[in-house]
Design brief:
The complex is a heterodimer of chains A (381) and B (172). Chain A is 29% helix and 28% strand. With 381 residues, chain A is α+β, with helices and mostly antiparallel strands. Chain B has a six-stranded antiparallel beta sheet. Classes of the chains: A alpha+beta (381), B alpha+beta (172).
């Protein structure tokens, strides 16, 4: 049974034969086509998340649409899923994706991310959608995020079919990628949230390293308050750290399938913060000869904490450098003494000091932040 | 020279004939702070697996080496510092000229290219070498060069303070 807040889809059939809210039986095929497309996308989404597994029978059952009501006038059909339960995420993702495909085909908007390998099936389904239309009839599909419906008529359908048959239409590299290229792992990224959709529990995230990603937070609805705070701020929002399950596609970050935490990345808030934020933006290959890993958040975080402790105690602040291994180097260098704290991507601290009158310095390795801070207080002395 | 940890490939040669020859090192944004502090690892790289690039002063000027780097490498050179070959050999390391090694496909090697051999050094040794070479480079000071101009652009820095004259031609 649908819950009261369940998002439905509105599809309006217009034309003489639909007047008065009548829904001729031979028009049901269009609603069926819509459902078939939705199911195909949702199944592909599920398979992406569970490589090598067979989708459970309940998944299809939960992807069954029902007509919630038909308004009078033309046949104004409101569709909802028969049930909302375990697979609600897949229902929503599939609805979003299908909205995007319909808008892309008919209104020329950007094609959304589609699950792997589903492009051909979606193409066939889209070519069939609206096949039963006769002159002076239309199907209006109300897609999320737009006040105006996408209008399918014989005329607009002709243009959309030409569009859909273009070789390049589904040339979304991710749509053709092999299944083995998907993987998911817990990760923290730094960037800005540019858009929040509370109804869908999604957000757009502009990662400083990887560009635009989509994020889901449905499993952690309490995050909405944190997200609202950062989205409602200035036009250019604050830099954030977002932690969650990051799904990679073709080796590149694609989306947060789940979000665990969102917080402002202040890097300690001192004058060094912009430098650390710059480091957070470095992508692979930033260094000499194309070598250089992205800087690990744990290293940036530790660097910010050491700088904060030094500033609070009035100690000399070091020069701050990114390391090609993905860490951060703090260094005090004078002609009498060089001291450095190299923070590795694994949050180890290499504490090195070398007075000018020696040819070999001393090196200690620790995982203890306080030790690193105490060592840092020596500065270039 | 019989150093136990040197492995030369075909086309590589040790630079030992002229210990006073300078080798130029390009300093990029991630090797220098906004206040001008140069990282000690600027002269060795950070790990013992790399071969930090230098350019031989007997083959190119400091300005030429800076210009080539800015126009061809993935980050602009912000300035040139230098080591003398014997400052490196005194630290028990070597500068290797690889100018005769055929470039690999897609490789762009700078004119006068050579590299510092820091391969295989354990951490404390590498970090110590950084400091030794950094001190030598700081003693010498930055090698004067001008910011690289865009292709086709004239460097007018030398005439900036002269009285302005009416322009007669468009030089842009």
């Amino acid at each position: 049974v649908a819950t009261p807040d369940q998002r439905g889809r509105r599809i309006r059939l217009t034309g003489e034969r639909f007047d008065g809210g009548r829904l001729p039986v031979d028009s049901l095929v269009e609603l069926e086509r819509y459902q078939t497309l939705l199911r195909a996308i949702a199944r592909a989404e599920w398979e992406e998340d569970h490589p090598g597994e067979v989708p459970p029978a309940e998944l299809d059952a939960e992807l069954r649409l029902t007509i919630e009501r038909i308004e009078s006038g033309s046949a104004d059909v409101f569709l909802i899923f028969e049930q909302v339960a375990v697979y609600a995420d897949y229902q929503e993702q599939a609805q979003d994706a299908l909205d995007g495909v319909i808008a892309a085909a008919y209104d020329g908007t950007e094609l959304p991310d589609l699950p792997l390998g589903v492009a051909d099936q979606v193409r066939v389904g889209m070519l069939e959608l609206g096949q039963s239309l006769e002159p002076d009839q239309s199907i209006e599909v109300f897609v999320e995020g737009s006040d105006e419906p996408v209008v399918i008529t014989i005329e607009t359908r002709g243009a959309a079919i030409a569009h859909l048959q273009l070789d390049g239409f589904f040339l979304n590299p991710s749509a053709e990628a092999p299944k083995a290229s998907l993987e998911k792992q817990s990760e923290t990224l730094v960037g800005r949230i540019t858009e929040l959709d509370a109804n869908r529990s999604t957000y757009h995230f502009e990662s400083l390293q990887y560009g635009e990603l989509k994020g889901h937070y449905k499993k952690h609805p309490d995050l909405i308050e944190d997200l609202r705070k950062v989205v409602d701020q200035a036009e250019v929002g604050p830099v954030l750290r977002v932690e969650g399950e990051l799904q990679y596609r073709d080796g590149k970050p694609w989306r947060f399938t789940d979000t665990i935490a969102v917080e402002e990345f202040t890097a300690g808030g001192g004058p060094w913060a912009p430098t650390l934020i710059d480091f957070a933006q470095l992508s692979s290959g930033w260094g000499e000869h194309g070598v250089g890993l992205p800087i690990a958040f744990v290293a940036l975080d530790a660097a910010g904490q050491i700088m904060q402790a030094l500033a609070a105690g009035g100690s000399e602040l070091p020069g701050v450098f990114p390391s090609q291994s993905g860490g951060v180097i703090l260094e005090w260098a004078s002609r009498s003494m060089v001291r450095s704290v190299e923070i590795t991507p694994n949050a180890e601290f290499e504490l090195f000091a070398m007075p000018a009158d020696t040819s070999t310095g001393t090196l200690e390795v620790t995982t203890n932040l306080d030790e690193a801070i105490n060592f840092s207080k020596g500065g270039a002395q | 020279v019989n150093a136990p940890d040197i492995e030369l490939s075909d086309g590589e040669s040790l630079m030992i004939d002229d210990g006073a020859e300078l080798v130029y090192r390009q300093i990029t944004a991630h090797l220098k702070t906004p206040t001008g502090q140069v990282a000690t690892h600027a002269f060795t790289g950070e790990s013992g697996v790399g071969k930090p690039s230098y350019a031989r002063a007997s083959r190119v000027t400091a300005q030429e080496s800076r210009d080539w780097h800015t126009r061809n490498a993935n980050s602009a050179s912000l300035g040139v510092w230098a080591l003398a070959v014997d400052e490196v050999t005194r630290a028990d390391r070597w500068v290797i000229d690889d100018g005769l090694v055929p470039p690999q496909e897609g490789e762009r090697r700078s004119p006068g290219h050579c590299f510092l051999d820091v391969r295989g050094l354990e951490r404390v040794r590498l970090k110590s070498l950084r400091v030794t070479l950094w001190n030598a480079a700081m003693d010498r000071g930055e090698i004067p060069t001008a910011e690289t101009t865009a292709e086709g652009e004239l460097d007018l820095s030398a005439v900036r303070n002269e009285p302005a004259e009416p322009a007669t031609t468009d030089t842009h």
